[in-house]
Design a protein that fits this description.
The structure holds 2 protein chains of 2 kinds. Chain A is mainly β. In chain A, 0% of the residues lie in helices and 52% in strands. In chain A, the strands form 2 sheets. In chain A, strands 2, 4, 5, 9, 10 and 11 form a 6-stranded mixed sheet that branches. The relative contact order of chain A is 0.34. In chain B, 0% of the residues lie in helices and 54% in strands. In chain B, the strands form 2 sheets. In chain B, strands 2, 4, 5, 6, 9, 10 and 11 form a 7-stranded mixed sheet that branches. Chain B is globular and about 40 Å long. The chains are: A mainly beta, B mainly beta.
């Protein structure tokens, strides 16, 4: 059972544009929602994370929007740069369960110069 | 800190052989996680340890897979016997018990079973 669904699978955006990736979850016990960025040949690295008590978190060009009632959250990459070209994974976890991560399927983002 | 260290980075073996993947977590981290990444199934949690004790191994695909953590600075994931469908990138990650929940991933081991 896939508990975190991510879309789209891939997207192409022009330099300076906005990339938007969406995730939906099923388990209402999730209490931590991170986004990981992965470059080819590397392990995933934490990009930004949010807890369900806030609706938005912004760090530089990256923003998470969180909708608890809809059980959805999204990543917005503003002013996308070629260096942002990577695969992005949303994830969810439960602190009481050791914060083991359940990942979405990933979105491959290509930013064209 | 050197980050999470995994070895080998690449492993090519033949079906039926035993494979051992190794991980050194970040010093001071209390949790260690093993993940598998494939195109078909994405990133899957296999097992995780807390203070060297296995807590949840529900993601381990079958009895051919086993994991150990004999001390706080070393863990192994063993596949015996290996099969072609085990071909994947295996990641180890670690995190602290307290403070931020961030997991730090190693560079992964790319396993190819012929």
């Amino acid at each position: 059972q896939q508990q975190v669904k991510q879309s789209p699978q891939s997207l192409i955006v022009q330099k300076g544009g906005i990339s938007i990736i969406n995730c939906a979850y099923e388990n209402t016990a999730f209490d931590y929602f991170p986004w990981y960025q992965q470059f080819p040949g590397k392990g995933p690295a934490l990009l930004i994370a949010i807890r369900p008590d806030v609706s938005e978190k912004k760090e530089g060009r990256f923003t998470i929007s969180f909708n608890k009632s809809a059980k959805q959250f999204s990543l917005h990459i503003m002013d996308s740069q070629p260096g942002d070209s990577a695969t992005y994974f949303c994830a969810a976890s439960i602190k009481a369960a050791g914060n083991k991560l359940t990942f979405g399927g990933g979105t491959r983002v290509l930013v064209k110069p | 800190d050197a980050g999470v260290i995994q070895s080998p980075r690449h492993e090519v073996t033949e079906m039926g052989q035993e494979v051992t993947l190794r991980c050194k977590p970040i010093s001071g981290h209390d949790y260690l996680f093993w993940y598998r990444q494939t195109m078909m199934r994405g990133l899957e949690l296999l097992i995780y340890f807390n203070n060297n004790v296995p807590i949840d191994d529900s993601g381990m695909p079958e009895d051919r897979f086993s994991a150990k953590m004999p001390n706080a600075s070393f863990s192994t994931l063993k596949i015996q016997p290996s099969e072609p469908r085990d071909s994947a990138v295996y990641f180890c990650a670690s995190r602290k018990d307290r403070g931020p929940s961030e997991q730090f991933f190693g560079p992964g081991t790319r396993l190819t079973v012929l």
